[in-house]
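Table S2 (text version). Query chain:
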Amino acid sequence: MSNTVLELNCVTKSFGANLVLDHLSYQVSGGSVFALLGENGAGKTTTIRILLGLCEPDSGSSSVLGLDSRKDDLKIRQAVGYVPEQPILYDWMTVEEIGKFSATFYPIGYVNFLKRYFDLIRQYELNQYAKIKSLSKGMKAKVSLALALSPDPELLILDEPTSGLDALVRHEFLESMVDRAATGKTVFLSSHQIAEVERIADTVAIMKKSKLLLVEPLEELKKTTSILTVTLNEEIPLEVPFATVIEQRTNGREHRFLGRGLRADAEQLLKEDSNIARFELRTPTLEEIFVGYMSKQ
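Corresponding structure-token output:
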């Protein structure tokens, strides 16, 4: 039996002359935290909307929990917890009322939904009698998170979920995503908070200008990527023939490379080069990897 909970197959989407997604294909496995990273306008939100059946691709197909995004969009949205970047809430309702209203969409799990919802709003320190329109952006984000988590879905799809949250709530929420994955549930998130993603993600995908640059387990990505900083005795061009260079920066006699697939004998080759005064090899952070790929032409 397949463990795939989400799949895109050669998905393309344009808005007028603007190509937003260019033949996007990847799968997300169950029981994991999957992070979609990319610059603004890379196509992350459009990807999510296509998966949920809120937007149709020009070509290609996608599925969520074995359901076709085109044909089974309503079933998908009932089965998935979704937090958009800008939550759409009924401003005239109170925090309590919007929870009770949302619970009616889950008649079988109405009681459990409300129990989890009230537990969450207490945890997020929300006043259940407050009108939604009186809440700050961060408080509205907490309501949206509580609504998405209350049905205890197999899959959570989150578009910038920590935007507006204070540091403590953000930390607790992200840790809870790891806990969800440990129980076999799946989290798919798009985020600009790359340092936070690095703490919790099992797999990352990086997009740039509608294209998918990579999809890889985070641990493997970091293990196979290196930052090399070299200081030369003489100011001459330096090449790194023992790695695939993603990004190169030069400042006088100092050269910095971000590369993948470093040869096993790289350090020995560096030591044998008489023009190298000193060098440092280290594992980059996810943010350094991301910036490197965004800088790559």
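Notes on Table S2: The chain is about 35% helix and 30% strand. The first helix runs from residue 44 to 51.
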